[in-house]
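Quick one:
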Amino acid sequence: MAPVLSSELINEIESVTKQITMLSPETIPMITLLGFSENIAIATEHSWFEDEMYQMASNLDGEIATAGDTEMTVNDAEPFRKDQVVKIDDELILITDFVVATNVATITRGYAGTSASAHDDDAAVEVQFNKSVEGADARAARRKQKVKKSNYTQIFDDTIDISGTAQQVSTIGIDDLYEEEKQKKQKELAIQLDKACIGGVKYDDGTDTRYFGGIRNTIVTNVLAGGGTAITNARLNEMVKSVWDAGGFESGGRYVFLVPANQLSRVRALDENGRSYEQRSEAAGARIGTFISDLVGDITVLPNKNLSTSEIFLIDLDRLEIMALKGRSFFHQYLGKVGDSETGQVIGEYTLKMSQEKAHAKAVNLLA
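Output:
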């Protein structure tokens, strides 16, 4: 017998967030990994500010032909200023003046007893420290502006519509057809949200349609092109190094490799320079493993069915949050009787906050 739906329940909101988090890890892998953040978005474009340190290295734009040259040009002006000591190959060099407009530095060669020598075009120029003199006045301060980042909120919704006849006709194994349909909608919407966390495209049509950007489209700095070749131990280590060079591991983090099923098999088969992959099982039930990287040791490898067959992600779970818009975490709302049907809807509005994009990496165009 179908339940009687009281008119008093119309438009009452019933939270279903807990039911969604109880779905199997294989069904909603990202929601399982991250959970729903306790932080909330308060606008349909959720914004935050990120600090970024000054870069500490660039490259020569043109060679330093002789040991007596007293100028050098670099590709990027950001790391450099007057009274810095930089290192090129084995030589320390003092910058005595720097013109930002032209990227040209006036330099003192063979600083601090090192030997001056010629240096090739594109040689690395790395800042070592500032020249400090006892009793000197304070040097001019510089401050890098915080960078505003944002992502849109996206609505995930569907409708339940059960006819009067369907409510009354006995269905084997189902006591409450409306509740059964509600649970199916919850699962479908959770899967949609999970897919958006991976492949969502940040989009706003200027009216009322918005989508949030997912991991795939947010990572733009550390992108390693596979060229259609198979994943290797070296390429996984290159992904780690790209994040390492950007400072991603300096504050710790919970780094994982996300891989599709076919790439999981390829990673598992790697055995270069000793053991590079150790398989184990976790309480959550998924079969996972650990990649033993050169720089930071063990990194968990997790399968994710929402990745394409030719990509792998390296992400820090501590820099990712699935956030609901205020008052819009997944809920069910009974809309009442419409004609000869009982109707309701399940709805939620969420965004993905992915902090410090340079602290993540992806490999693309791998052999599928």
